[in-house]
Amino acid sequence: MASSSSSSSSEKRWRYDVFLSFRGKDTRKTFTDNLHKALERAGVNAFMDDSELKKGENITAELEGAIRGSRISVIVFSENYGDSIWCLEELVQIMECKNTLGQLVFPIFYHVDPSHVRRQIGMFGPAFEKHEARYVGTDKVSRWRTALRGAANLSGFDIAGRYEGDFIHDIIGEICGRLNNTYLHVADYPVGIDSRVAYICNSLSVGLDDVRMVGIWGMGGIGKTSLAKAIYNKYIHSFESKFSCKC
Fold this sequence. Notes:
Blueprint: H1 2-13, E1 16-22, H2 24-27, H3 31-41, E2 46-47, H4 61-68, E3 70-77, H5 85-101, E4 104-109, H6 114-119, H7 125-134, H8 140-152, E5 157-158, H9 164-180, H10 193-204, H11 224-234
Parallel strand pairs: 1-2, 1-3, 3-4, 4-5
Helix pairs in contact: 3-9, 4-5, 5-8, 10-11
């Protein structure tokens, strides 16, 4: 009962599927807008801040709540991302949520070199020279540098000369796959199931360009449903769509 309650409370915590962090002057009306619309078409509830002008240096409580209430944060690193104190404070919050709430974080490198983000050089260099001069004696810049290093070291997406439509398609596929991967409960103590799963999986030849149908037959109570669920869970990451039923 404890694990069921924990799972239920986790689901209720999420207000949004995705939080989009981006530099408005770079991508609001171009890449990020296209990505947001693609997420909506895919049925993903994504939060995108609509306010053009940010006031002050601290993000609002509403925005912080949106970050904490999102299952996945997507960070669009672009040319002027490092200039924005607002974006950097968002990033710190996102990385804190990753560490404390288990939030998934995907960096997108939109015409910026991931190593430049990681090391704050290149396009990010002049911005951080200004930050260092402005915030002498505070820990702000060190927190931003730590957050950038952490985010840039995560597995993400680099456009690197690709067509934007194909690039967005791959991002949507990855996000939808993560959101839809709900594992089925097999059993508390699935003794001896691994060898049976391996036997059937060897017959499936997953990865071949064909269709396989497997029937599991036997008397009641011997674990047919548990076996089917275990196989489903094993391959849940491999398919764009899936469903389960008990006949």
